[in-house]
Amino acid sequence: MERILSGMRPTGQLHLGNYLGALKSWVDLQEEGYHCFYFIADWHALTTEYADPSQVAEYSMEIALDWMAAGLDPERSVLFLQSKVLEHAELHILLSMITPVSWLERNPTYKEIRQELKDKDLATYGFLGYPVLQAADILIYKAHYVPVGVDQLPHLELTREIARRFNHLYGPVFPEPKPKLTESPKVPGVDGRKMSKSYNNAIYLSDSPEEVWEKIRPMVTDTRRMRKTDPGEPEDCPVFDLHKALTPQDEREEIIQGCRRASIGCIECKRILYRHLMEQLDPIHERRGKFKAHPERIMEVIIEGSKRAKAEASVTMEEVRRAVKLWHP
Ligand code: TRP
Ligand code: SF4
């Protein structure tokens, strides 16, 4: 069975962008019968949250809850916490020995995030080494595929380069993992910008139906539609951007016509959007409600999953230690 591995950093609650952009395809891969390993990258969260890690543990459990609500099934997929599998750290240190600093410094994500998070001091060893830890996460399970968005492609390429270098120095241990690009729609937030916790424009998987409607209802629309009788242009409207991610093609065509001819109103248009949103969110809410009543069960799932992951990681580490030929009984 081919192996899939992916991870998420616990830096906040999951929103619709996380769901449509990643989580939904993780569930699909599970349904397609891959052997899936999904983990909460809490050490990776520390690379940016080290000054105040007080919320990381809480977010980790929230994410586990959202995963199960979205349909990840601990009977079929291994759901685990990175910091519970110390072997990741051991492999990370070995890989860090063979990774040239220049590879890390030219990593575009490194430069971008340092720009983006200017208020944080990210001139740390750990942050520079982020992709080395990520390589360890992936290689330790000998994953065949890693479902990621395009923004993660440079990291995956680095993983492949590190694997090649390791194999060249110590003998063939690691297969080179391939990206599995998730062709997902771009999900804008309720203000038209990219959906993000930091923009305060996100619809969370934990939002109640009322909260969702209270985010959709006041959304700004095409400013040409001052009155219901004024025609508008969907391409200039953030509501329509969300329709692109959620509403089927034929219904979207009707909206385009209706908007340009002023035959539908913006509230009606938002109601259609809300209906399609809730088609996605209703089953998630239903499961979320059930699991939320038993937080101890979520904890159990993660502890159990981490044991299973550790067993797999240990097998690879035995092979790695033998290949590197440090003292080994
Ligand atoms: N860097 C990933 C992100 O920010 C999270 C991550 C950590 C990851 N380790 C990984 C993803 C291994 C895939 C495989 O989204
Ligand atoms: Fe936007 Fe819909 Fe109103 Fe047109 S009808 S402006 S697409 S909300």
Question: What's this entry about, in short?
Answer:
The chain is mainly alpha-helical and 329 residues long. It folds into two domains: 3-187 and 295-324, 3-Layer(aba) Sandwich (Rossmann fold), CATH 3.40.50; 207-289, Tyrosyl-Transfer RNA Synthetase (Orthogonal Bundle). The chain has 14 helices and five strands.
CATH class of the largest domain: Alpha Beta
Count of distinct strands: 5
CATH homologous superfamily assignment of the largest domain: HUPs
The helix content is: 55-70%
CATH fold-level name of the largest domain? Rossmann fold
N-to-C SSE string, H for helix and E for strand = EHEHHEHHHHHEHEHHHHH
Unreliable runs: none
Radius of gyration: 22 Å
Please report which band the strand proportion falls in: under 5%, 5-15%, 15-25%, 25-35%, 35-45% or over 45%.
5-15%
CATH architecture of the largest domain: 3-Layer(aba) Sandwich
| Overall average pLDDT | 95
The helix-and-strand class reads mainly alpha
When the domains are counted, the total is 2
Give every kind of bound small molecule, once each: tryptophan, iron/sulfur cluster
Please describe what this structure looks like.
The chain has 329 residues and is mostly helical. The chain has two domains: 3-187 and 295-324, Rossmann fold (3-Layer(aba) Sandwich); 207-289, Tyrosyl-Transfer RNA Synthetase (Orthogonal Bundle). It is built from 14 helices and five strands. It has a three-stranded parallel beta sheet with strand order 1-2-3. The two termini are 32 Å apart. The chain binds tryptophan (TRP) and iron/sulfur cluster. Tryptophan binds next to β1, α8 and β4. Iron/sulfur cluster is lined by residues 221-222, 225, 232, 234, 237, 239-240, 255, 259, 264, 266, 269-270.
